[in-house]
Design a protein that fits this description.
248 residues, alpha/beta, Rossmann fold, SIR2/SIRT2 'Small Domain', 2 domains, six-stranded parallel β-sheet, two-stranded antiparallel ribbon, elongated, binds nicotinamide-adenine-dinucleotide
Length: 248
């Protein structure tokens, strides 16, 4: 570990008026929630992510997609925030008005660690929504679901789907606008546990850098946006964040 990089991030975390964190699946890995790559292993390795995380894939096989999400929901419910989530929320409370957390994660671990105002770019895996507006113009009502199948509307057959952003879908506009604003305003951006492969979230590091922020990447492995970083810290979220943020 480059000790001078650790010291530089600590010093900036202590004095910056605005700090923005962009977190990805690696943030929750030490809580036992698989990253996207890990979630595609085992039983699911023969599927293309687009078959499991797209509207097209859901329409082609709702039961399969529902089952994959059921497994992931269970992992999220069973998980607890790790030392990284806790260090961030503690830092945010200590330095009031300084921290914005923007997450690509669909779990609720930043929130449960004590940061309910976390900006979610990719939705909430523990919530569901209707696949399409009810064609009758009335509100859909859940019918009894067959085991292993997503629930349907009793009237029109509309399906419930997880309230996450799938491949090819737009990000929630308000969340993305708030995230861009935080990226432009911050003096320090910490990019934690993201491969940098999913856009437009990955572009927030470049937005911050262009606006004059220092960017630190925290990841045990190389990411696709390492070239945006002033400091690349090779380590895990639960080890590095307490070290970097247990400051003033
Ligand atoms: P990703 O799965 O593409 O990449 C995970 C990154 O985390 C990798 O770069 C990996 O090296 C790093 N990593 C692994 N363990 C780590 C640790 N302990 N500490 C720090 N970093 C670690 O994840 P992504 O970039 O977030 O993009 C995948 C998409 O999948 C996102 O859109 C996200 O919504 C979704 N996803 C979310 C969750 C979740 O909510 N927990 C889990 C899986 C996937």
């Amino acid at each position: 570990m480059a000790e001078d990089a650790v010291a530089a991030v600590q010093a900036l975390a202590r004095r910056a008026d605005r700090v923005c964190v962009l977190s990805g699946a690696g943030m929750s890995a030490e809580s036992g929630i698989p990253t996207f790559r890990d979630a595609m292993s085992g039983l699911w390795s023969r599927f293309d992510p687009a078959q499991l995380a797209s509207e097209e894939g859901f329409r082609a096989n709702p039961a399969r997609v529902w089952a994959w999400y059921a497994e992931r929901k269970q992992a999220v419910r069973a998980a607890q925030p790790n030392a990284g989530h806790v260090a961030l929320a503690d830092y945010g409370r200590r330095r009031s008005g300084v921290l914005t957390i923007v997450t690509q994660n669909v779990d609720d671990l930043h929130q449960r660690a004590g940061w309910p105002q976390t900006i979610r770019l990719h939705g909430d895996i523990l919530a569901d929504r209707w696949l399409q507006p009810c064609p009758s113009g009335r509100a859909c009502a859940v019918a009894q679901a067959l085991p292993g199948e997503p629930p349907r509307c009793a009237d029109c057959g509309n399906l419930l789907r997880p309230a996450v952003v799938w491949f090819g879908e737009m990000l929630p506009e308000d969340a993305m606008a708030s995230a861009e604003q935080a990226a432009r305003a911050c003096e320090l951006m910490l990019v934690v546990g993201t491969s940098g492969a999913v856009w437009p979230a990955a572009g927030l590091a470049a937005v911050a850098r262009r606006a004059g922020a220092k960017v630190a990447i925290l990841n045990p492995d190389a990411s696709e946006i390492d070239d945006q970083a002033h400091w690349v810290l090779r380590g895990t979220a639960a080890v590095l964040l307490p070290r970097l943020l247990d400051v003033g």
